[in-house]
Design goal:
The two termini are about 50 Å apart. Helix content is about 40%, strand content about 15%. The chain contains 24 helices and 20 strands. The protein is globular. The protein has a 7-stranded mixed sheet, with helices on both faces. Strands 3, 4, 5, 6, 7 and 8 form a 6-stranded antiparallel sheet that branches. Strands 2, 12, 13, 16 and 17 form a 5-stranded antiparallel sheet that branches.
Length: about 725
């Protein structure tokens, strides 16, 4: 699963393509020479075509239908917001729509280069127009709107129509900077530099870059986790796989014109710093504490990676728009000391949450936070007695928590993108007796099963697995097995839904020894299935108890990706469940809903989600300055009110609740009467969803101990449900 999870995530750095607006100004004529494919690229395309059509898990037919998908994907890759090409350009390209399959059979890359060369011309024209607009004043008292999402809009019919689109775009760029307090001269300089730098990156592209774009359009027309890595991307991939990248420990991707944080790597500098989060968008990068911030809106992802990467122990500054911030921000600047991802920082950690009870002492609920499914392969292969693995560490933590008298347990897999398949299997074995954990079907249809063969359980008490939309791969295998065996409840959001396995093929292994490096292919070769026969692919693992979730679930994870493999199923494996938790789920969910409806923090969370959803649904923004300032003022007022309410409300837990700290944390905790940092109120609060997960497990402890209470409450819920059906 290393190749299926960590490689997938890391490849996002390496193969994410140019998918945003770009620009430049006066450039020497020789830089505008039309690009052409080389003989080496023709040979590489021949190899890639054979591998993709014969080795992929999906049954591939190189026909007109696939050709049309490649055509659409290539255009979307180059001009996703439909801001450069005219409708007439697209009409002229239509002759390629059903011809790319034949072109690939004959290693003919000319169509891809013809399309790109016209794209390059259109970029230069658009940027020339944008820079000219900066020399004219803008009237921000006009009530008009800019459509920032044109991904599904018609292509502009004329140059005049495209000019109007760009007038509003540049006006919006100007207004966004004006709202941050920048002076007019500084705004013009920033935007002019942005457009110049963006176009330069287009005109600096060489033939291998165009080849990578087109081959990825081909690969991703088949399936989203399949891709081509150019020699440069392959090098980035290898660096990242060794976990020795001297940077911030974050995986980057593309979100419209922004470079976004796809994942904060556990154990890396950004993870330890804690301020950078998945979904944040990078808008500028600076070197050192005092270095000039370089605007990176519209940059290629690998160029942003190069800017962030640097020597260990040096500082990089990032200006980011948080995920929950709108187009206007506010942005925040984060300074992070570069370093290496350290295995010890990825290791599982434990804590104890004490949940109060009426009339009795609090229930101790153990929490194990597992950022990744890790395994020291070399140590295991050489039989080192002290080799590290997530299973070994979690087993040790379970014993420590049992010694502390915990009565229930939460395994926190939020943001855990996966890791070792072996570890997913052995870790599941800590909570089931024996049996199959996951089924794997390869491209030939052969099904194999990964099993827990060790009898007994390290923990056989009440259990919950906490997941979110970023829990993927090995996390989904573990959560699905716990759910299928009836060993515990899955709580949180529907998981990512990545149930496929990728392998790397080095094209150099199939080329003449004296040929230049040809890059690598990442091909989906197998699919995971739960022991109940259903796939984790696409649908993910659906929680037994759902927590509030921002955004449309269909817009996240595997189900949001074009050409993703569908959910499917095979025969169930031969396994024995631990019991039926349906009654437990119904009663625990009812109690949770009751607490949430009366909880101020949950009310604030729901308000935040509602506001986030409203912003996500909008594809336009006002260009009326007074309206934009009013929106920003309202957001700031709400933020201040929320902060004041939280300060007056006290801790997230009731006074009698307590979060256990280890010895080091107790030494650092403020003593009674000590002056707390005014800005720490929000960041240092206990985790709302983790707290509620502990309370749900506490309910499971109580209901398990008192079966009569469970039956009575479940019967009551059934009667209420039947009554509501009759009324309806």
């Amino acid at each position: 699963m290393i190749k299926e999870s960590q490689r997938l995530k890391v490849c996002r750095i390496a193969i994410v393509l140019l998918m945003s607006s770009v620009a430049w100004a006066s450039v020497p004529d020789e830089q505008s020479i039309a690009l052409k494919p080389s003989m080496e690229q023709r040979f590489a395309s021949n190899l890639a075509t054979k591998f993709l059509t014969n080795w992929h898990y999906k049954d591939i037919r190189l026909d007109d239908t696939l050709s049309s998908g490649i055509f659409e994907g290539y255009l979307e890759l180059l001009d996703p917001n439909r801001s450069y090409f005219l409708a007439a350009d697209i009409a002229s390209f239509e002759r390629f729509r059903r011809a790319l399959d034949d072109a690939l059979r004959h290693s003919d890359l000319a169509p891809a280069y013809e399309i790109f060369n016209l794209y390059s011309e259109r970029v230069q024209q658009r940027v020339s127009h944008a820079r000219a607009l900066l020399k004219q004043p803008f009237d921000f008292t006009v009530d008009e709107y800019y459509s920032f999402d044109r991904s599904e809009a018609p292509w502009a019919l004329s140059e005049a129509e495209l000019n109007e689109i760009w007038r509003k775009r540049v006006k919006n760029d100007y207004l966004r900077l004006k709202l941050t307090g920048k002076e007019a001269e500084a705004i013009v300089e920033t935007l002019d530099d942005r457009y110049v730098n963006q176009e330069r990156r287009i005109l600096e592209l060489k033939s291998p870059d165009i080849f990578q774009f087109f081959m990825n359009a081909f690969a991703q027309a088949i399936e989203p986790h399949t891709g081509y890595l150019s020699p440069r991307s392959s090098e980035n991939f290898e660096i990242s796989m060794k976990l020795s990248l001297e940077g911030i420990g974050a995986l980057l991707g593309r979100q419209t014109e922004y470079t976004s944080i796809q994942q904060v790597v556990p154990g890396g500098p950004a993870s330890l710093d804690g301020r950078l989060q998945a979904g944040d968008r990078i808008i500028a990068v600076g070197q050192g504490h005092d270095g000039k911030m370089v605007d990176v809106i519209g940059w290629r992802v690998d160029d942003v990676v190069d800017l962030i990467r640097g020597p260990k122990d040096t500082v990089v500054k990032l200006e980011v728009l948080p995920e929950d911030a709108g187009e206007d921000g506010p942005s925040v600047t984060i300074d992070i000391v570069r370093g290496e991802v350290r295995l010890e920082e990825q290791a599982a950690k434990s804590d104890i949450i004490e949940v109060p009870r009426d009339g009795d002492g609090p229930l101790k609920i153990g929490v194990i936070d597992l950022p990744v499914f890790y395994l020291d392969f070399n140590g295991r292969a050489t039989n080192r007695p002290d080799y590290r693995s997530s299973t070994r560490d979690v087993r040790r933590l379970i014993e420590e928590l049992k010694a502390e008298g915990v009565q229930g347990m939460v395994i926190d897999l939020r943001n855990n993108g996966g890791g070792s398949l072996l570890e997913a299997t052995t870790l599941t074995g800590l909570f089931i007796d024996q049996g199959p954990v996951v089924q794997v079907r390869n491209s030939s249809g052969r099904i194999s099963t990964e099993e827990d063969t060790e009898p007994g359980m390290a923990w056989d008490g009440p259990l919950a697995v906490l997941v979110n939309r970023y829990s993927a791969s090995a996390s989904e295998i573990f959560a699905a097995a716990i759910q299928d065996y009836g060993r515990g409840l899955v709580i949180g959001e529907t998981t990512f839904g990545k149930g496929t396995v990728q392998s790397l093929l080095d094209l150099d292994d199939y080329a003449p020894s004296d040929s230049p490096s040809m890059g690598q292919l990442k091909i989906t070769m197998a699919q995971f299935f739960r022991v109940n026969g259903g796939s984790t692919q696409n649908r993910g693992v659906i929680p037994d108890i759902r927590f509030p979730s921002a955004g449309d679930p269909e817009a996240y994870g595997e189900r949001s990706l074009d050409n993703a493999l569908p959910w499917t199923q095979i025969e169930a494996a031969d396994y024995q469940t631990s019991g039926d938790l349906s009654q437990m789920v119904a009663v625990a969910d009812f109690r949770y809903q009751g607490r949430a409806s009366a909880d101020r923090e949950f009310a604030w969370l729901m308000t935040d989600i509602e506001e986030f959803n409203q912003e996500q649904d909008s594809t336009t923004v006002s260009l009326l300055e007074s309206a934009r300032r009013e929106e920003l003022d309202e957001k700031e007022t709400r933020r201040k009110e929320r902060k004041e309410q939280r300060q007056g409300h006290g801790p997230l837990f009731d006074d009698e609740d307590r979060v256990s700290l280890d010895a080091d944390e107790l030494e650092e905790a403020p003593q009674d009467g000590a002056e707390d940092d005014e800005e720490s109120t929000d960041d240092d609060r206990p985790d709302l969803l983790l707290r509620e997960s502990a309370r749900i497990v506490a309910d499971m402890v109580e209901l398990s101990a008192d079966h009569q209470t469970l039956v009575q409450q479940f019967s009551t819920l059934n009667r209420q449900h039947q009554g509501s059906e009759k009324i309806n």
